[in-house]
Amino acid sequence: MIPALRRTALAALSLAALPLAACGPRPPAPVTGLVDATEIDVASKIPGRVKALAVREGDRVEAGQELVAIESQEVAAKIDQVRAAVTAARARLALARHGARPEEKDQAERALETARAQAAVAEKAYDRASSLLKTETITQAAFDDADFRHKAAQDQLAVAQARYDLVVKGARSEELDGLEALVQQGEGSLAEVQSYGREMAQTAPIGGEVAKILVHRGELAATGYPILTLVDRSDSWAAFPVREDLLAEVRVGTVLQVEVPALHRTLPMTVFSIAPMGDFATWRSTGEKGSFDLRTFEVKARPEGAVPDLRPGMTARFTPAPAPAAG
Predict the structure, then answer these.
(1) Which of 1, 104, 178, 296 is least crowded, fewest Cβ atoms below 10 Å from its Cβ?
(2) Domain ranges within the chain, ordered by starting residue
């Protein structure tokens, strides 16, 4: 009887201890996240029709490799228009710097000599008319006519002299400055439209993999709208939503053992960013008196070294260390 009673008592003690064990601290559940990588959207600053695509989805490209050719007749016409305006401005500036042609100089010199001869004749006629007027040999009207012709000849001589000086000396410094500014303005406009012209050939800004083609050959590409997306799988990381009560052992620089089911591997990843998630739905109420709500943080970790088979969208998970027991 005594051994039977002993066994019954031990069984009762074991059953009594079960609720206590169930109420003890449980290890944290694994935190599941996703693998991500740097993505670059290739877009054009000008609208146009996609003329050709040099790549397909899944292709590996190098930085600087041509990806898309865009056709835009409006940009091509604008480039021709501005280039012609710059050529005209440069020609005007060169003409002002070099002065007139020899033929124009000879013509201005002959016109000046003619004006001098006419002024000399008019001056002699004026002097003779003045002497005759004093002796009242001619009328006042005849003198007035001689005086008018004399002044007109002097004005014509002044105009011929100014024309000759302009042809010989060339443009003034102020005119040259204005023409140079006009050329610089045209060159700036040409550089601007040529930069738009270079947008008609889109090249890869980084080396990577073509993840998605959004605009195909023959379709219109809008300004700033992505034509295709490149992904750089050499710059991959995993992002995990971690409740703040599980962050006690997770810091920047902490190495996590991350399981990637798709690769059947566990990868060491180093935490490089911990930031609160912006969605307030990540708050969790404890519902306990004297406690506080828990918020979720985004923890990002990068693998140590290149992992060729690691792709964006793969599932990743790690088990955080349990929080230390309250004293």
Answers:
(1) 1
(2) 26-67+213-318, 77-195
